[in-house]
Amino acid sequence: MLAVAAALRFWRIAGDLPYVFHFDEPTLVNNAIWLIQHRSLNPHFFNYPTGLIYVLAALYGIVALGGMILGRLGDAQAAVAWLASHTYPQPPEGGVIYFYPTIGVPALYLIGRSLSAVAGLAAIVLTYEIGRRVTKGLAPARIAALAMAISPLAVEHSRLITTDMPAAALATGCMLAILSAWEHGTARRWITAGALGGLAAGVKYNAGLVVLVVAVLAVWMGRARIGRGPESDVEHKPAEKPSGMAEPLRLLAYAAVASIIAFLITTPFSVFDPATFARDLGYEMHRVGSITASFKGAEAVQAAPAEKVVWVFLYNLGFLGLLAMVWGGVVTARMRRFPMAAILAWAVILLLPILRWKSLYPRYLLPVWPAVMLIVSVGIVDGAARIRRLAGKRVPALAPMALLCIAVFSPGVFHLAQLESKWTGHDPRAAMTTWLEQNVPDGELIICEPVGAFPDPHRYSIKTVDFLGLSAPESYSAAGVHYLAGSGRERLIEGKEQFRNVLSNLDKIRASSDRVWSEGHYAIYRLRFAPNWQDTVRIAIQGGDETRARAILEKKVKESDGSTPFAWKKLAELRGEMADTAGAVAAWHEAARLDTTDVEAYLALGNLMTTAGNWDAAQRNLEHALRISPRDPLIHHNMAVVLLSRARDRVRRGDHDGARVDWDGARTQAGLCAKFAPDDPMTDVIGQVERMGKRWGFIR
Questions:
Q1: Predicted model pTM
Q2: Which of 161, 308, 480, 594 has the fewest CB within 10 Å, making it most exposed?
Q3: b/e per residue 647-678 (b: at least 16 CB within 10 A)
Q4: Per-residue pLDDT tens for 368-380?
Q5: Distance from C-alpha of 504 to C-alpha of 499, rounded to nearest angstrom
Q6: Cβ neighbours of residue 536 closer than 8 Å, sequence gap 6 or more
Q7: Does residue 29 contact residue 108 with C-beta atoms inside 8 Å?
Q8: What is the Cα–Cα distance from 585 to 110, expressed in whole angstroms?
Q9: What average pLDDT is seen over the chain?
Q10: pLDDT tens column, 246-298
Q11: Predicted pLDDT at 537
């Protein structure tokens, strides 16, 4: 089972890297890298607990250190630059970020995915061990472990960087520790159970609810001690311990303290930064309790939470599997033994809150999934035993059980095969993005639906809308839009009366455009309408009438639909060509304000400040550009020029210490330029830095 499970989880674990299509992955990876980049343990982000973020940061730090030792990553600054080469700037106030789809450093994502895969394998082993202990037999344990090994839900999220599978493994480990505490009753085992529950909460908040099963254990043990409950499963006799609830409550207190300490170790800034913690936790509670905000009125297409949960069960187990789960729950409840009651409590405690969540993804069920598989296995084993009794001894002992397993797990295996087929093939969004970047001119405004194309925001102005049909084609044309990238989201609202206008606009877009690329649900449309203002500007520039082109742009940027980064950049270029330096600087600043991830704007500002001899301002703008694109050799080249120029001024003023600091910085920047673009002529800046260093006596 483990060999099959490992093959399913590690085969094609690289997926479509460097393209990343799941929105949780870049959020976790970026936050881990920012801890290293900013040398801080406070992520300013608590929508998830920080346990998994800390683990990822530690692993990435080890990789960076190993690269430095082996000479593959140079010094610490170069190692951090490599780690951060595909991250986005951290939001100043922290909070959730969903930059997806995106491009990432493959090695970092493989590390995180491998961690999830190992957690998935651990969950299988722990599920088997729990099944062996609670049922006193191997058949239910093996069936539950097999179900975890081949479940589409468990397989898919064992090769993605999400909090859910590691949390599931920790919650399952907590349950095993709880059963061990029931069998042996030592304080150490209670503390272990509480600590594992706290660690589970430190990876995913709701997974920590498994700790409440410890309270069930305390009540059950107390009832056994006062003679009001079953005691046959307890190895020690009640007479050997003090009677009443005093001892169980004391042990429960130990477990509670251990769980709190474990949670604080994984999420310490819940205490040190309580305002941000409360803000982000409140945001998550509001989000799961309401319809996903991005739908903006599409509540009618959302299923009820219970319907979503049932759909997950049917997708993974089929109708017979759902019946086996219900019957297994009945059998478990009728046993009146703590180990079986604990499994039932585990399932109920973690499922009940989920049934109230309106924004619900299947992976949210993973912390309770081992309990569900155990209950299903009990239902299968009991059902097989009843079938054999009815059929008589002429039926082989394993035949009914084998048939039930095939019937229950066949739907999941079918969907798993579909999942593997999809995972093996290429993702259309990568091809969609490539087409845009190869065929659309730089500076265009592209309208994209979520979870679709992800063209380079440094080359284009990108606007994301929930549905392309939210605006008529004439509105897009008036805004200067040529290209619309759809991800097939109209399927979510088809047949819904309140979205009739959205669907009508989409039909108009299709009728008034050419479908220049399509695959599956994804399509790129090129509107046939001509964006008059852009064409007029182009014609004026080609005719040498820069004054007219500037007048058109000056008017356009004052309009609400024309104030785009692209328009401001074109205006900045024209102002610069017409020797209006102050106006060009103002326009570049406005372009940077509208798109804080645009390297071009900060590079241009750095060049203008360099030309004006304002070295400090030039350095600030180039440092901002480096935070966006730390591996861009042109930025490092320009930074080396700025620092070398300021060093020359300081030498003239007699400030040799300050000049030495600037020269050292210029030397580092020149080295990074050569590292990232070894064959580019601009790496000659290294020779210039060395010559000036010899002239000033900094090197001999």
A1: 0.70
A2: 594
A3: bbebbeeeeeeebbebbebbbbbbbbbbbbbe
A4: 999 999 999 999 9
A5: 9
A6: 552
A7: yes
A8: 43
A9: 85
A10: 888 888 999 999 999 999 999 999 999 898 899 888 888 877 766 554 444 44
A11: 67
Tokens of 497: 């009366």
Residue 610 has pLDDT above 60, yes or no: yes
State pLDDT tens for residues 88-102. 777 766 665 656 677
Could you read off the pLDDT of 224-233 as tens digits, one per residue?
A: 666 555 544 4
The distance of Cα 643 from the centroid of its chain, to the nearest Å, equals 38
pLDDT of residue 355: 85
Q: Which residue has the higher pLDDT, 119 or 652?
A: 119
Half-sphere CA count of 258, side-chain side, radius 13 A: 22
Nearest in space to 162 (alpha carbons), one of 313, 287, 26:
26
Structure-block tokens of residue 329? 């729950």
Provide the H-helix boundaries in 512-655: 532-542, 546-558, 565-577, 581-594, 599-611, 615-628, 633-653
What is the C-alpha to C-alpha distance for residues 578 and 534, in angstroms, rounded to an integer? 19
Nearest-angstrom CA–CA distance, 163 and 157: 9
Closest CA to 49 of 133, 180, 162, 176: 162
Q: Which of 160, 161, 162, 164 is nearest to 123 (CA)?
A: 164
- DSSP labels, 86-110: TPPPPPTT-------SEE--HHHHH
**How far are the Cα atoms of 536, 559, 594 from residue 571, in angstroms, in the given order?**
14, 14, 14
Segment holding 60, helix H or strand E? helix 51-69
* Cβ–Cβ under 8 Å, residues 291 and 303: no
pLDDT at residue 232, rounded to an integer: 43
Q: At what angle do helices 633-653 and 685-695 cross, to 10 degrees?
A: 20
CA 283 to chain centre: 17
**What are the strands of the beta sheet with 483-486, ordered from one edge?**
461-464, 445-448, 483-486, 522-527, 513-519
- What does the H/E/C string look like for 224-290? HHCCCCCCCCCCCCHHHCCCCCHHHHHHHHHHHHHHHHHHHHHCCHHHHCHHHHHHHHHHHHHHHCC
SS3 of 294-329: HHCCCHHHCCCHHHHHHHHHHHHHHHHHHHHHHHHH
Token code pair at residue 74: 């140079």
- For domain 532-695, the question of CATH label 3.40.50.970 is answered with no
| Residue showing tokens 């759909």 | 311
Spatial neighbors of 351 by CB under 8 A, at least 6 apart, are 309, 365, 368
At 313, list the tokens.
Answer: 């069960």
Q: Which two tokens stand for residue 447?
A: 């309208």
Residue 569 in tokens? 């950049």
Tokens 């089972």: give the residue.
1
